[in-house]
Amino acid sequence: MTEYNNKSMLEVLVTTALSNALLELDPLKNNYSNRYLPLEISILQWMLEIVPKLRNNLNLLKEVVMNEIDDFKVKYDYAKNINDIDNIDKSSKSIEILQICLFLITIELEFNHLYSVKGYNKK
């Protein structure tokens, strides 16, 4: 219960919705257009778990996401060497999703820097 006290209502709702979506997705996961949904949901769940822990240190959050991208690049290269098409595809999609997260974190860092440079009081 204390975990929910540290999260906003939106975070709780999104986490619950993602968990429910994974359960309900099982019959649809063999559909070609839905093949990335479990992967996308698991990355979103990971981000929802890690962001509250590192919310006050965006540089560290950026570093953690960059490390995850590097890990998936290693998996991608390994899968490429053994011609494992399924893992190549999943690693590539994971890198793509995490790069979007990295972009958003970088934008937030730049915004925070500009905001603090102008001398505004941050809340």
How are the SSEs ordered, and which strands pair?
Elements: H1 2-5, H2 9-25, H3 37-54, H4 58-81, H5 85-117
Overall description:
With 123 residues, the protein is an all-alpha fold. Helix content is 78%, strand content 0%. The protein contains five helices and no strands. The radius of gyration is 17 Å and the shape is flat. The two termini are 27 Å apart. The mean pLDDT is 80.
Keywords:
mainly alpha, 5 helices, 2 domains, 0% strand, flat, 123 residues
Structural class: mainly alpha
Give the CA-CA distance, first to last residue: 27 Å
Q: What is the number of helical segments per DSSP (H or I, 4+ residues)?
A: 5
What is the beta-strand fraction? Answer: under 5%
Largest sheet: none
Topology pattern, helix = H, strand = E: HHHHH
Q: What is the tally of beta strands?
A: 0
Name the poorly predicted regions.
none
- Evaluate the radius of gyration: 17 Å
For the record, the count of structural domains works out to 2
Q: Could you tell me the mean pLDDT?
A: 80
Helix content: over 70%
Approximate shape: flat
Summarize the structure.
The chain is mainly alpha-helical.
